[in-house]
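# step 3/5: fold
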Amino acid sequence: MKTYFSHSSRINQTLSEKEIERNALLADLEKTKRALEIAYAGFDNVTEPDLIDCYIYEVNSVLKRYKFLMEQAARIALLPEEDSVSLSTETPATSLIG
């Protein structure tokens, strides 16, 4: 009877680990979305060339992190493909150049 209980507890532990991974990924996605909003707001409100460069790099960095997290979400089938958010490849730098 002991083997039965230990086997069932391993199954529950695996499900729990998946839930922990899912919740951590969702939390990271939410933090990254907020960081992106903050970076865009900062970019919109600065006039110094050095700060503009700083926010361009920050926005690009956060966008790469967001893309990575979205790929991880797709990998664990957290998001359906048709509902996944498509990120714009336009960065503040491209809007200034073009």
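# step 4/5: annotate
The first helix runs from residue 2 to 44.
# step 5/5: archive (pending)
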